[in-house]
Amino acid sequence: MQSPEFSPLPALTRAESAFVDRYLDVLDQVGRINPAHGDDTYAALRAAQALASHAAELRDALALMHRRGETRIHSTTLTRALRGLDGERRAARVTLPPATPD
């Protein structure tokens, strides 16, 4: 069986990598909390508790970028990285599902 072909990730600084990783962690937790996609209050509670620490880590990653003089977010490059890390599927859990016709 042949393994799937993955697009190579763009070259990122260590701080940019941490930013992308922490952003996806936050996105995953918000997706788990989203009442449109879940049905278990305990799982949502656990995700909400984890969200606080992931948000602090995201803040720290951005602060590190700023301290290192990385004052610009290169959205095109970071978007490629997010897509390469399955960001579109992960972000879809944050949104509402399409409305069903009544």
Summarize it.
The chain has 102 residues and is mainly α.
Set out the fold topology.
Elements: H1 14-33, H2 41-67, H3 75-84, H4 87-92
Helix pairs in contact: 1-2
What is the chain-wise order of helices and strands? HHHH
What is the alpha-carbon Rg in Å? 16 Å
User: What does the average pLDDT come to?
Assistant: 91
Beta-strand level of the residues, as a percent range? under 5%
Structural class: mainly alpha
Major beta-sheet overview: none
Helix content: 55-70%
Detail the poorly predicted runs: none
The rounded distance between the terminal residues' Cα atoms is 44 Å
Tell how many strands the DSSP assignment holds. Answer: 0
Instruction: List the total number of helices.
Output: 4
Overall geometry comes to: globular
Describe the structure.
Helix content is 62%, strand content 0%. The protein has four helices and no strands. Helix 1 runs antiparallel to helix 2. The longest helix is centred in the middle third of the chain and has 27 residues. The protein is globular. The model has no long low-confidence stretch (mean pLDDT 91).
